[in-house]
Amino acid sequence: MEEKQGQVERSIVKKFRKEIWRKFTKAVNEYELIQDGDRIAVCISGGKDSMLMAKLFQEIAKHGKKNFEAVYLVMDPGYNGKNLRRIKENAALLGVPVEIFTSRIFDIVAVEDMESPCYLCARMRRGHLYNRAKELGCNKIALGHHFDDVIETILMGMLYGAQIQTMMPKLHSTNFPGMELIRPLYLVREEDIIHWMNYNDLEFIRCACLLTERHAEGTEIGSKRDEVKALIRELRQKSPYIEKNIFRSVENVNLNTVIAYKQDGVKHHFLEKYDREQGEDEVS
Q1: Contact 77, 103 (CB under 8 A)
Q2: What is the mean pLDDT of the chain?
Q3: Which residues on adjacent β-strands are paired with residue 140?
Q4: Cα–Cα dist 279/276, whole Å
C-alpha cells in the first residue's frame, strides 16, 4: 500500500507536473487561495476530482511555502455500503486521513424535490460541509471543481439562465460568517485528471446519488450540464481554442459594450452614462 501511495505522489509532481501540479499551484497563487494560518476542510466526495485535490493538498503542505493545516472531510449523505467502502479503501490506499460524518441528504432530496434534485442536493451538502468545517475550527472549505466545470457553468448561465456569470475561484460564505470557499483545481482540465487516474490504475466512485441509481434502468434524468458538455465537445472539433476562449470571456468583459449589468445587487444600464460620454464608432 505504501508503494502505491508513493507512486501516486510521484506521478503528481513528475509525470503530471505540467498538466496538474503547476496548474494547481498557479491557481493557489494567482487567486490567493491559501494564506498562512489557514485551517482548510478539504471536502472529499470520493470521486476522482476531490481525491486528487486531497493528494495535491498533501503535496503542497510538504513542498509549498504556505503554513496551513488541512482536515480531510468526507460527508456521507446516504451512500450505499459499496460506495462508502470504496471511499474508505481509496483513502487508506492513498494515505489520506479522512474524517467521516453522516447526513441523510439523499433521502431528503428524493422525497422533497424531484424536479431539480441536483441543485437542492448541492446546496444542502455545502451547508452541511460549512457547518462541520466550522465545528472543526476551519476557516475555509475546498471543493474539487475543475476548469471544465467552470466553462460549463459559463455556458449554462448564458443558454439556460439568460445571464453572464462564472464559478468563482473563491467566495465568502453568506450564511457562515468568517468562512470561505476555495476551488484549487480551477485551472486543471478534467481530461488530465482522468489521465492521472488511469495512469495510476485508480478507481473512484462516480455519481453516488441514490436517485440516479433508481433511474439507471428507466428514464434518464435530463442534465443541462451534460448537454453543455456535449456542445463544448462538438465545438472543440471545429476549434481547439474554444474552451480557453469561453474561460477568458469572463476575464475580458468590456462594460462599455454591455447593455446592462448588476453589481452588488444593483442593476446598471448603459443609458445611465450614454448622454454624458462620447465614444468611438462601433467596429463591425
Answers
A1: yes
A2: 89
A3: 40, 180
A4: 10
